[in-house]
Amino acid sequence: MRIVSIASAALLTCASVLAQPAVAAPPPLDAYGDLPGFEDAAISPSGKHVAVIGTVEGERKLLLFDGGMTLVGHASVGDLKVRGIQWIGDDNVLLTYSKTEALGFGFTSNQYEAFQTLIVPLDAAQKVSIVFGHNSSIVTSIFGSYGLRLIGGKWKGYFGGVQLMGTGMQQRLETTSPTLFEVGLPDNSTRKIAAPGGDYLWRDWLIDEHGEVAATFDMERETGNWRIKDAKGKVIAKGANPGGDASLISLGKDGTTLIYSAKAKGEEDNHWYELPLTGVTDPVEVMQGINVDSIYVERTTGRLIGYIDGDQRVFFGPKLQSMSDKISRAFKNLKVTLEDWTPDFGHVLLRTSGNGDSGTWYAVDLNALKADPLGSERPVIPADEVGPISKFEYKAADGLEMDGVLTLPPHREAKNLPVIVFPHGGPTGQDDVEFDWWAQAFASRGYAVFQPNFRGSTNRDEAFHRAGYGQWGRKMQTDISDGLAALVAKGLVDPKRACIMGGSYGGYAALAGVTLQQGLYRCSVAVAPVSDVELMYDTDYAESGSVKVVKMSLLEELGPRSTLDEVSPRRFAAKADAPILLIHGKDDTVVPYEQSTKMADALKDAHKPYEFVDMKSEDHWLSHAETRKQMLAAAMAFVQKYNPAD
């Protein structure tokens, strides 16, 4: 393994371009659709060990390395849907994964995504165990993770768990609300430290550095009335948010305060507030005027140490900010994500992506100013086969400023290109200037790919996000086609050779683009789409247990229930003016499979051309390699049939 100076780390990508021979054909499609060869990594608190989820000779494994990157342990993870890894000290790793579980009679939904966590010892002679696996009165799924703490020299983990009543075959759920447990690590002992909220409450907790409950948040499911209690159970803050948009964020910078979000009376936007844990003074608004994308929290104390505002990482304290600035300078012009770090930030694991970089991981020693390239996510895709990526700014028809991400085919002039319009899911979310495996796959075959950040996206301020409320199929949809028109006006793409494609909400937009709109696209590819907005409302409300807070939140986002049929592509199947490809996983717990089957039935009844690919044992996130590749191959063949690039 090569060690390089952090100051020259960003040159690795450029150097790899020079080292690559010219290629006569693009990389195989499976190189894009497969799971990354390097999926995740974590560093131990001392910096002595690194854990990696990666593929070796076709097999997915958990790989354990020492500080010199010598392999000291490994275990197969097969087709587990790994959701995260982290170290417990230097001797054990927590591996969290999920699986789709069927639910029996009496539940509000047929399936749910169950999360479980394994305790994996570095010493292969010791046994792997599952969190809560030593206590038969607790379901072995976790319902919320509240951090790790080092208490008296021993590691503890804090997890939400659901308790069982009875014994043997007579066991049943005591309540569906999670109880807070302290779990000894790695011995897997359990201790109840906080009671569940009850079926009428949503409950959340903050854990301080001593492993004690510092604050409890409760929200009434029917009214949206909420309150925050201190360690002794005294109410220190309260409010009413009928839409349910209030929550705990973290402990404050020094651990003596907490941060929470809520709406002020008479306000539409959420605000962040800081409040002493003792409640001796009134809350003070913080982060005013800042568009916080995400936050950084100290792993072993729960304290807020920084945040991301757009493209900027902001840390509290000059040492951490200096560290962040050094990394930004070293990897300039790439999307950089800090994935893990030691408590002193002397060692950091980071991921880069962007122009010339299909995803690269580094171990950075900030004390020595060195970066160690750990691995590539897609080594089969050379740097010069990564299609150029840039931000494209434009205005919607009503003058609202917005942008999107434009990915161009490599080795082709950016002029009158065939185009795939690719709106993101959510609709809460955003696309950034980074390598996107789906977009890059189509760029590699000669298409420009445009990912619009329509109103309702999170790349701008709260007002921009809220501008999407009530705009499904309306301005959110025309924002997308306005982006296409702006690309056409620049001469970059050919308006007669456009298709629209997306997943989840993006799948909805793909269906709406050829049913609610006409004359724009030659084909539509909808993966796990919403086709009937009223059906989505009914399903989400029913699966919540008919909770009024959920109802109010849905109506705020979607608009009046009486208007939902007006923006449902299923209801306008007879107006579809281009062939449609539907792709859906049968294990989807987010957008039910029936959303696609009902759309297919409507298209069939209307005698409109469509194809339907069902993916057995696949979830909403395309977590399995084989079905991801199946999806991409089907989508590519469909687009090339109806909108060939050449």
From TrEMBL:
Presence of the UniProt keyword Hydrolase in the record: yes
Keywords, alphabetical: Hydrolase, Signal
SUPFAM superfamilies: alpha/beta-Hydrolases, DPP6 N-terminal domain-like
Extent of the signal sequence: 1-19
Regions that span the bilayer: none
Domain Peptidase S9 prolyl oligopeptidase catalytic: 434-642
Gene Ontology biological process: proteolysis
Signal as UniProt keyword: yes
GO MF, any single term: serine-type endopeptidase activity
InterPro entries in alphabetical order: AB_hydrolase_fold (IPR029058), Peptidase_S9_cat (IPR001375)
Top-rank taxon, per record: Bacteria
Entry-linked Pfam families: Peptidase_S9
Protein name: Prolyl oligopeptidase family serine peptidase
